Amino acid sequence: MIPWLGVILGTVWQIVLGMLWYGPLFGKPWMAERGIKPEDIDPKSATAGMILSMVTAFLGSLTLALVLGRMGAAGLAGGLVWGAAIGFLIVGGVILSTGIYNDDSAKLITINGFYRALSFTGAGLLIGLFL
């Protein structure tokens, strides 16, 4: 059984965290590391990127719910621990290796990696509450 409320809350968590992370929290250093300025951002591309981010946040939360449910990782602790493990070790690892191959700075890899790791940690916690 899929905990739909947990999936929706996990999706919302990821979207809100992303808006804060790449906005007031780390938006300026992220843009600086990428070598872009706010005026360089095409509104149509930004809108498409945000829509795609919402879809992938939903699919990530749904997949996380299926994995956590299959593992029996119910409750706050189970969701938190396994969400963090998946976020930091699997997703964070992919971002780290991709960043290294792309010759990204350590700062950019850290900004991107911690966002994804924390997004899965929070989503796992929220999903675990409804398993």
Explain this structure to me?
The chain is globular, with a radius of gyration of 15 Å. It is mostly helical. It has helices spanning 4-25, 27-34, 43-71, 75-101, 106-128. The chain has one domain (4-128).
Largest sheet: none
Order of helices and strands: HHHHH
Radius of gyration, whole Å:
15 Å
**Overall pLDDT confidence:** 96
Strand content: under 5%
**Helix coverage percent of residues?**
over 70%
How large is the count of helical segments? 5
Low-confidence stretches at least 5 residues in length (pLDDT < 50)? none
Number of strands: 0
Straight-line N-to-C gap: 8 Å
Give the count of structural domains: 1
Based on CA inertia axes, which overall geometry fits?
globular
Structural class: mainly alpha
SSE order and pairing:
Elements: H1 4-25, H2 27-34, H3 43-71, H4 75-101, H5 106-128
List keywords for this structure.
131 residues; mainly alpha; 5 helices
Provide a compact summary of the structure.
The protein has 131 residues and is mostly helical. The chain is built from five helices and no strands. Helix content is 83%, strand content 0%.
